[in-house]
Every structure is written in structure tokens, then in C-alpha cells.
Amino acid sequence: MPKRILLIDDEKDLVDTLTFRLKANGFEVLAAFDGSSGVEKAKKEIPDLIILDLMMPVMDGLEAARRLKEDNATAAIPIIVLTAAVTPDLGKRVAGVQAKACITKPFEPEDLIAQIKKALQS
Q: What is the Rg, in whole angstroms, of the alpha carbon atoms belonging to the chain?
């Protein structure tokens, strides 16, 4: 059974591209386009891993991650942050939500796939 990945990002083109790449690597992909709907989808679908953007409408990625980690149903799901929001405190912010990895945009899809596989093994 393929691992299910929930991709939460407001950039539709990126979601489409990553969906294609992830499916080509044997993953099932779910998508949400803002933090709030991403949290709801995660609670409903219980994916194996979440890829989460930080800058999104409705609810930003950090708040979405906090809510996911506070809920017993979703707390154990590994999160990989995928962001263009590179700030001096990015590492601290990402560590605060217990993300398995942080990948900054632009990125190489192979690097993301490697981090996904690593996070799913831990």
C-alpha cells in the first residue's frame, strides 16, 4: 500500500508539479491549499506524512503545524516544512513545531523525495 502524503501549499502550480513527482515515486497524494483546510484534511485522512508551506492564507503553516501537533489523532504524523520564508529564526520556528526537515524554495525535487523517505523511516 503506497504511503499517503498530504501537501499543504497555496501555490497551485507547485502542488500540481509535486503531485506528479510524488505519484511517480509511488506515493498517494492529497492536497490542501491553505492551513485551515490542511488541518481538517489531515484529521479526516490521517496521512503518513505532511509537506507544509509556511506562508499561506487563512492559517499560516506554523499555526497549522501547532494544531496538528496538539491533536492526538495527528500529533505523530511527520511534517516536512517547504518554504520560501527564509528568516534568521527559521530553524528555531521549524524546530518549535517538531518538523522532521525544512527545505527552502527553490529546491531540487530529489532532495525532497530523499527527505520524505528519511522521515517515513524514522
A: 13
Assess contact for 65 and 71: CB atoms under 8 A: no
**Residue 90, pLDDT score:** 67
Rounded to an integer, what distance in angstroms lies between the CA atom of residue 59 and that of residue 42?
14
Q: How far is CA 115 from CA 1, 29, 42, 50, 101, in A?
A: 20, 16, 20, 12, 7
β-pairing verdict for 79-83 and 4-8: unpaired
**Is pLDDT of 35 > 70?**
yes
Q: Output the CA angle 80-8-34, nearest 5 degrees.
A: 135
Q: Tell me what the mean pLDDT of segment 66-85 comes to.
A: 92
For 104, the grid coordinates are 527552502
Q: Cα–Cα distance between 53 and 50 in angstroms, integer?
A: 10
C-alpha cell at 120: 517515513
Rounded Cα distance between 72 and 112, Å, is: 26
d(CA 104, CA 91): 11
